[in-house]
Design goal:
By secondary structure, the chain is α/β, with parallel strands linked by helices. Helix content is 48%, strand content 12%. The chain contains 16 helices and ten strands. The structure holds flavin mononucleotide.
């Protein structure tokens, strides 16, 4: 940056003025954009170092995504959706296509290994007008992998490339990829794979820094992800994923590994505030204090309300339960309230427990 500012200062000096002319301002911006091209996925402009909410089955549903969006997430991904399920019109798969206008830009993630099914699924997905279609090449679960889908495709890179190319050609939407480093430690070819995916039109790649064999064990290896970014042939955004669970780790991803953005999964569960915490820290190292009891209750109330609006009373109450432990983590003597929250079948009872909690803990200085 320094050099660009010096360029402006020098020009101002030459013109003997403190106020740059419009022409000079335009030239300055052009120089900046050339050096620091705007980050885009297709024609979606992204902020500097965007934070992406990771796709997470049974977690990244519309209410949770809305909360994360309110608290600073820039790009949303849905839970993964089976291409075969979509084609069969299975209710569970179809419901996962729901998106809220306010969460855009949002990517719908699909998985499968059969090209015909994936192309049919693309048509179904496209009809629901997301901003991005994402392909899951990273799911390590046996029932997915054994069909050659998810991370299973890492054993067949030519098919991975062919499938991506076919999907890119079949849709007007940008196609992004979510994958892992490789099948196992001995077959890590992510630099070459990413280049091939870019060459057939992938618009961005998010890489979880583990192999399939690692599942979720060990530590994510960000250095391998940065090798992809540092390949001079790469020009699409490369996002890091895996274990980014403190603002400092996000800073390291940006400043030391030079990646284009961070995809955040588990650290956001029950903690949608994490995105803004990261943003404040990245801006000027401000450390945000943990959310107050009032903020936690506000999130829980709004989550439950959105879930009921979206799925109805019974499912809404049931499916929001898994989030309460995280929302209220660290509050002393909370068990009694949590038990009531997760055993009540009626929303008005759960809302009453929230009120009780607000009353009981209103003087709690810090959680
Ligand atoms: C509960 C859960 C569900 C997940 N579901 C998906 C999914 O549907 N699609 C996907 O690509 N990855 C899925 N993942 C993987 C995450 O997107 C992410 O790659 C992984 O959790 C590592 O990132 P993290 O350390 O920030 O959590 C899931 C992870 C978890 C914990």
């Amino acid at each position: 940056m320094h050099t660009h500012y010096s360029f402006l200062v020098e020009e101002l000096h030459k013109q003997n003025t403190k106020e740059p002319t419009t022409k000079l301002k335009q030239t300055f911006l052009l120089v900046l954009h050339k050096r620091y091209p705007l980050l885009t996925i297709g024609n979606i402009s992204l902020p500097d170092f965007p934070l992406l909410l990771a796709p997470m089955e049974d977690v990244s549903d519309p209410p949770f995504r809305a909360l994360c969006k309110n608290h600073g997430a820039d790009i949303m991904y849905t839970e993964f959706i089976s291409s075969e399920g979509l084609i069969r019109d299975a209710a569970k798969s179809v419901q996962k296509l729901d998106i809220y206008e306010k969460e855009r830009p949002v990517g719908i993630q699909i998985f499968g290994a059969n090209i015909d099914s994936m192309l049919k699924a693309v048509e179904i997905v496209e009809a629901t007008s997301p901003d991005i279609i994402d392909i899951n090449f990273g799911c390590p679960v046996k029932k997915v992998v054994c069909k050659g889908a998810g991370a299973g495709i890492l054993k067949d890179i030519p098919l991975m490339v062919k499938l991506t190319e076919a999907m890119v050609k079949h849709t007007r939407l940008p196609v992004t990829i979510k994958t892992r480093l490789g099948w196992d430690h001995d077959s890590i070819k992510i630099v070459e794979v990413a280049e091939r995916l870019q060459d057939v039109g992938a618009a961005a790649i998010s890489i979880h820094g583990r192999t399939r064999a690692q599942m979720y064990k060990g530590e994510a290896d960000w250095s391998k992800i940065s090798e992809v970014k540092n390949n001079p042939r790469m020009h699409i955004p490369i996002f890091a994923n895996g274990d980014i669970n403190t603002p400092e780790k996000a800073r390291i991803i940006r400043d030391e590994y030079g990646l284009d953005g961070a995809m955040i999964g588990r650290a956001a569960i029950g903690n949608p505030w994490f995105f803004n915490e990261v943003k404040s820290y990245l801006k000027d190292k401000t450390v945000t204090s943990s959310p107050s009891i009032g903020q936690r209750l506000e999130a829980a109330r709004s989550h439950l309300k959105m879930a009921i609006d979206w799925k109805g009373e019974t499912l809404g109450v049931l499916e929001t339960r898994r989030h309460y432990t995280n929302y209220f983590k660290g509050i002393p003597d909370f068990k009694k309230y949590r038990t009531k929250m997760v055993t009540s079948d009626l929303s008005h009872e759960v809302f009453a427990v929230f009120d009780e909690v607000g009353d009981k803990f209103k003087n709690l200085a810090k959680v």
